[in-house]
UniProtKB/TrEMBL annotation, chain A:
Name assigned to this protein: DUF4468 domain-containing protein
Species assigned in the record: Mucilaginibacter conchicola
Taxon lineage: Bacteria, Pseudomonadati, Bacteroidota, Sphingobacteriia, Sphingobacteriales
InterPro entries listed in its UniProt record: DUF4468
Keyword Signal: yes
Gene3D superfamilies referenced in this protein's UniProt entry, alphabetically: 3.30.530.80
Keyword vocabulary terms for this entry: Signal
From TrEMBL, chain B:
InterPro entries: BBP2, Porin_dom_sf
Signal peptide: 1-20
Descriptive protein name: Porin
Organism of origin: Mucilaginibacter conchicola
Gene3D superfamilies for this protein: Porin
Membrane-spanning parts: none
Short name of one Pfam family: BBP2
Keyword terms, alphabetized: Signal
Amino acid sequence: MKKVFGLLVLIMTVQHAFAQKDSLQVDENNNYVYYKVVEKANLPADTVYERAFNFAKTLSKENKPAKGQADKAFNISSKFITYGGMSLVRKESGEVKYTLNFQAADGKYRYNLSNFVFIPYKRDRYGNMTAVPGVEVAVEKFAAKYSQKEKDAVLDQIAAQSLAIEARLKQAIDRTKVPVKQIEVKKVNTGNW
Amino acid sequence: MKKRLLLLSFAALSVFAAKAQDTTKTDPPLVISGSVDTYYKYDFSKHSNIPTSFASDQNSISIGMIDLALKKKVGKASFVGELSFGPRGQVQSLPNAAGAYDESANSFHIQNLYVSYDVTDKFNLTGGYMATFMGYEVISPAGNFNYSTSYLFTNGPFQNPGFKATYAFSSKVSLMAGIFNDSWNLYTSVNKVNTFGAQLMVSPVAGWTAYLNVLSGKLSGTEFDLTTSYQITDMFKLGLNAADFKPAAVVGTGGFTGVALYPQVAVAKDVTLGLRGEYFKTKSGSYATVGPPPGSSVFATTFTANIKAGPLTLMPEFRLDSNKNDTDGFSTSSGNATKTASQFVLAAVYAF
């Protein structure tokens, strides 16, 4: 019985771990935001800014990062695809546009991902999922257009994408390399049989 | 006990696996989409009068089709294969293997079958049997607001097999040009691959897209088409389709011209009301359309509601068609010629 209870706890933990929308916050204007302040004592602010700026260039093919009004600040707009449905019928459900705001200062930097706008996709005459022209829904206004389940699915993916960008930004600023797992090929003597 | 543990482990793994699919890192391995539709129609003359492409059966709960599309993309290369089964997906929109609209003979059931390659982010090449790029309405009921179809749709092409190249100058302007089989809607050419087709897409402002289309060939004739829609506010959308067709000299003389307006207003989260007002004129000549005889015209008004419940859409629809002359094809319940015809349709479309 203890094992059964343990497994139930495990299932709930797994579910909770994947409720990634909990990573999002709401700002003072009640808009969804992913906001972080990171201590960075060992690097000059100029270096942090330059590395983050170079990273931001990789976020979008259409847009380039633009310098902000504050010192050592920039912003860039980009987008990512969201998916809906399960198993066999899983496919693109839309795209989310967002803005990354970044600012470096002595010993720290901060950034936020905000202005999340969802553009739904619909299957076109050729069988491709494409954006519905003219329909853009700010995630804060999701309740007026979509069900709670649909809202949660998109918020989960916004949070997942925010976490992924966070990891890549950290990696770019720290200049850490992604460890490449070496797979050893087992040797075999084909003469012995 | 072991069984319970096994079941719980399976449940935990299922949750894990299901959630893991919600990441945005990889493309879905194989995309499956499609729809299923069924309807009831009642023509108030007690027999079918209005020559709409689908929703043809009088006083009957009937089926449309089950439509299944598969798409796979690896790197820059992709394919789409779309199969359809049922009257709407067979004899009403597809020829059989011999090229005739005859449901007694075998069908390929293919709506789309093409391969595509992104040469660059902006330049794409596509070849195969493809849904036509002409017109506002489409074969899939999930792609239309109204369930019954317009005269412009019914008389235009459904599919165009060929090879096309598309270049996107920006997200606001793109140009497609292609060479297609000599006849519309057939799986094989009659003789040649000599129909030229082109499409200019412009999006002057956010929410407004316009497609200027042309399809011209020595056997297929020449059709010019404008298809545009504008999401003016969150609640209001306006669409327009205008076309002009002239048949090839070897086929006949005359043709048709027409315009259809599609205003739609969202009155609630799950309810949208829409009107289609269409004027369709047949030119004098020998070419016979699906509609009034040459030298006449029809004005059709269709009021449709889209009531959504998740992936299911209920579509109650009322339609009134008014011909120019008594003798243009409509008849009353007693069989007398009349100018007008009206029908009610209740359709259900499930898209996945």
